Amino acid sequence: xxxxxxxxxxxxxxxxxxxxxxxxxxxxxxxxxxxxxxxxxxxxxxxxxxxxxxxxxxxxxxxxxxxxxxxxxxxxxxxxxxxxxxxxxxxxxxxxxxxxxxxxxxxxxxxxxxxxxxxxxxxxxxxxxxxxxxxxxxxxxxxxxxxxxxxxxxxxxxxxxxxxxxxxxxxxxxxxxxxxxxxxxxxxxxxxxxxxxxxxxxxxxxxxxxxxxxxxxxxxxxxxxxxxxxxxxxxxxxxxxxxxxxxxxxxxxxxxxxxxxxxxxxxxxxxxxxxxxxxxxxxxxxxxxxxxxxxxxxxxxxxxxxxxxxxxxxxxxxxxxxxxxxxxxxxxxxxxxxxxxxxxxxxxxxxxxxxxxxxxxxxxxxxxxxxxxxxxxxxxxxxxxxxxxxxxxxxxxxxxxxxxxxxxxxxxxxxxxxxxxxxxxxxxxxxxxxxxxxxxxxxxxxxxxxxxxxxxxxxxxxxxxxxxxxxxxxxxxxxxxxxxxxxxxxxxxxxxxxxxxxxxxxxxxxxxxxxxxxxxxxxxxxxx
Amino acid sequence: xxxxxxxxxxxxxxxxxxxxxxxxxxxxxxxxxxxxxxxxxxxxxxxxxxxxxxxxxxxxxxxxxxxxxxxxxxxxxxxxxxxxxxxxxxxxxxxxxxxxxxxxxxxxxxxxxxxxxxxxxxxxxxxxxxxxxxxxxxxxxxxxxxxxxxxxxxxxxxxxxxxxxxxxxxxxxxxxxxxxxxxxxxxxxxxxxxxxxxxxxxxxxxxxxxxxxxxxxxxxxxxxxxxxxxxxxxxxxxxxxxxxxxxxxxxxxxxxxxxxxxxxxxxxxxxxxxxxxxxxxxxxxxxxxxxxxxxxxxxxxxxxxxxxxxxxxxxxxxxxxxxxxxxxxxxxxxxxxxxxxxxxxxxxxxxxxxxxxxxxxxxxxxxxxxxxxxxxxxxxxxx
Lengths: 528, 383
Hints:
With 528 residues, chain A is an alpha/beta fold. Chain B has two domains: 2-177 and 324-381, Medium-chain alcohol dehydrogenases, catalytic domain (Quinone Oxidoreductase, Chain A, domain 1, Alpha-Beta Complex), CATH 3.90.180.10; 189-319, NAD(P)-binding Rossmann-like Domain (Rossmann fold). The interface between A and B is small, with 9 and 11 residues.
């Protein structure tokens, strides 16, 4: 059993603090009195994950029947699974989705189910590559299904592939994948990396269309979610729950499977990233020095390849199956058990080091819009109660923020960055003025459907993800970022953390309180 | 009198071509252009008067000539030695200010009856520019008999003179001639959507003219290489201003076009090429709509461009040279309305012509637009 997360108060003897910085790291001396929020150490992994999965499928939660009793010959079975955006980094093989899907398929085969289709629940994400699908599902499943056209990737723009199920009492269109909606049983396989993942969001978002998603992927929803990691105060959650209940009421029979992982995030070569700095051994210090120096000499493209090749040695900590809401309630508790860290009070300044990866640049480039999304969208929202930084406070994040985009994965991001952000960074104005034209642009739709491009509207969602933070904060400073990119984002560039802290004082006043979010591994601050 | 004279000298022309290809504007140091003491020009025919230039602009076509980049097409329609300079505001003997309309049409050449084009008012397309009682020369500034703006004195026919309104500065007046080219271009466009390639002087003027004269259906998109050009392009009326290499993306996004290879499936109805280079023409072909028009406003030279797309998509490639009298008159209004006098960003005395030409050749990068010779000082007049 690992030690829980905790808050350290920096004193004169505290060693420099590690900041992630894209494909690299920085050691920063935080001011005396600053607080550092450390994640918990990894929970113990389940010793026999396959057995745990079987147990969960046989002993479902809520009013669901055990999976084997829901399977019968002649039925139409669809198994949807989370896409390449989860987990981060991708996990060491076998991926937990592979274990679950193989268990479900074994039961289906035993029941004589022939009509089985697997669907990657992409929503408006890019299509996965063969190697990514093999990584998630394993070679056996891939080779058995893909050549026969039974391994599909959700296509939210297929006019014949979507089914409109109705409208919620709040006027939200619910339109999901037709194959999934018309199956006798829809099994959804989740990797619940953070509290936001799973529940009704799995089907209502993962298998939905733009027409449906726009009801909760918008500025208002994001600004009203405090935070979207806290389901009781998340409008994103509420909207998905309304949709999920409508999906169930429409007769779509969902068997939900959710899995949680411990936060054993980094491979052995980067073991020091799992530890607290004052506990670094000689070997850890040597590893840090060697990797930092090597990375300084490595061309960015190669460094990116090295980091993107990392596989996390995550361990399975729980698996739940059955009725969606009952499953998700338990899953959330498991996520909290690993990630929740109590923090007393807010700070004037929140600092964070952003790593090389976020959900939307797996095997890709962390472009400036994704930097904004990771910092102001995901990391800022890793709280329950209230944000780690006070209203009007300053967020300082560290990342190189290169003016660089993956031309295949992120074509509409380029236009968003060049055209939209050149005009305004105001989420509401961006939404009103530009979203529709990007979302319905036939070229982006073509690229989304036929290549490995994110949907045309996706960069907008990334920007909306940070809308709550933009509304809450008095300023954002990026340390060590490309000056032009940072300015285009509407933020201020700083060369060093010390400069950034001085600049922040102009906003929050002298002698500010500082909190550093020491993540990844992921933590969820429970701020009182 | 002192004047900059361009002589026929093949070795110097070759040297200018080499130097100009290495560094724009350096043809002025080794080529056929020199500051010389020459006789004042005389044309002893009815209607010809003396004009003493006050300001004379340096045009892109002048720079091409100085750097040996202009086409041999011009050889029969210019006469050597000539004094360059066709963007001219000057004064008559009575002290009144005039802008010179440089096109040397039938009326100026004493040709009766006029050619069909002049008779139709399309004087820029005069069919007799190499004939009549003066030497060949498509414009003042390319004719051995008339002199040009880069000298202390020139001869102009009364059909070439337009009085300068009292409230118009010399800087505004010297912009009338290039603005007339832009008016002429804008009048070809109608209600199409428009992209303007290049934001040098001609590009900026075209943006101003299109915004005020044509009625573009969609956003007016322009390319601009340098920050000051981008700022001015926006101020003068472009809705979207992008770096030259971002035009395809901007047009694609604006027209919601699909793409095959580097070719857009849709595109812009009228693309105005104000650069006239191989790359700009190729780019125009990539972004023009099927059935659309490329208006070639910047003076081209010999280029090698794949015209398959032009053929396949039935694109019209149309030249757009100079102006007629009506365009010229409208240019006065354009200059006033758009405040185009602000585009004159540097002036030089004639004896610093190398610096002036170097500045003009690198104007964009130095935050400048129009560079002109200032011949107003008494010292200049006495030369």
